[in-house]
Amino acid sequence: MVSNADKAFLAITLAVSITEKEKRKRRWCKEWYKMRYRFTHEHLQRTLQATEPDDYKNFLRMDNDYFETLLELIRPNIEKQDTNMRQAIPASQRLSITLRYLVTGMDLEDLKFMCAVAPRTLDLIIQETCEAIIQKLKRIYPGPAVMCFCFSLIVPRTIEDWKKVAKDFERRWNFPNCIGAVDGKHIEIEKPSNSGSYYFNYKKTFSIVLMAIVNANYQFMMVDVGANGRMSDGGTLKNTKFWQLFSESENKLNIPEPCELLESDKKFPFVLVGDEAFQLTPNFMKPYNKAVLTDERRIFNYRLSRARRVVENAFGILSWRFKIFIKDIGLHPDKTRKVVLAACHLHNYLCEKNKNKYIQPGDIDIEEPNTTVTKGAWRQGRQLLTWLTWLWDTNIYFGISV
């Protein structure tokens, strides 16, 4: 007669045996992933390249020449070798996957159907490619050695370089001795697990902050990414590596000495400009309080707002071109930081290489001769998104309650 203990032992042995068989039968890859080259978006990409160049540019936010140039730059960092088990995903597809992720803001679960690549593999590809973009484009546009979360993009390196930045601001925006416009942008993320209110900001969302210095041509000179969203813009700026470099007495950035302005015998320092959220210092200008404006102060505020508007427009174009920024990013903050840095480098790359198509006249704010400002397309797009979000949040759609 079989005892209860023996029965239990036999049941456990049988269960283990069945589990082992199931493991051996389990597929290492779904069948439709194996047929990737029948379904992938690369066929569409090649067709657009050959027949519809404008649609191709919209597909990847760049012309094919600039795509190929970028691909050759990062290929050594992202190319993989084929194995006996499977064929590696080509470097060209890895780059186009990453660009489509940045351009569309698709979730990885949705992106897999366009690429025929598993979400976990997509995550790895996007992170590796973003890292390659950062490292390679950083070498093209080198800056001083910086550390932590701060990255230099096309920051000037000599006194003459800084003076050229200042001349651009004076020529385009009528603000002398300005060497950069500063602002912060909240990059909204899904709440990380076990993070409490650490990333919770005043907009009642979760975010990390992109703090940037922008030149007169809407290009990022220095950026800092990763501060938690609950910090103020002023507090975030003070904690950035580039602000520490600007504040040091050693002048490691080679900022020019104060100089006389036109029709003045007084010497004025070279300054950054920002809005009311930042602290006034000898090398950082902010607007006068609106409650105590004289005519002279009103003119100063007007001039400063023109110079400062470039950073707003740089952020706007970044979000307008890369839709990853118009919704919560469902990645860990460290991974999100890498995605943001890569997008900033791509923004500069396209500003430099393909400016007339990347930034078109109607995209940015235009000041008319009578000083009225026509808002750029990116602002109108943001307003539409806000309106649609409100409709969704209030459960209203075309007047029908759902």
UniProtKB/TrEMBL annotation:
<dbReference type="GO" id="GO:0016787">
    <property type="term" value="F:hydrolase activity"/>
</dbReference>
<feature type="domain" description="DDE Tnp4">
    <location>
        <begin position="182"/>
        <end position="348"/>
    </location>
</feature>
<keyword id="KW-0540">Nuclease</keyword>
<keyword id="KW-0539">Nucleus</keyword>
<protein>
    <recommendedName>
        <fullName>DDE Tnp4 domain-containing protein</fullName>
    </recommendedName>
</protein>
<dbReference type="GO" id="GO:0005634">
    <property type="term" value="C:nucleus"/>
</dbReference>
<dbReference type="Pfam" id="PF13359">
    <property type="entry name" value="DDE_Tnp_4"/>
</dbReference>
<dbReference type="InterPro" id="IPR045249">
    <property type="entry name" value="HARBI1-like"/>
</dbReference>
<comment type="similarity">
    <text>Belongs to the HARBI1 family.</text>
</comment>
<keyword id="KW-0378">Hydrolase</keyword>
<dbReference type="GO" id="GO:0046872">
    <property type="term" value="F:metal ion binding"/>
</dbReference>
<keyword id="KW-0479">Metal-binding</keyword>
<dbReference type="InterPro" id="IPR027806">
    <property type="entry name" value="HARBI1_dom"/>
</dbReference>
<dbReference type="GO" id="GO:0004518">
    <property type="term" value="F:nuclease activity"/>
</dbReference>
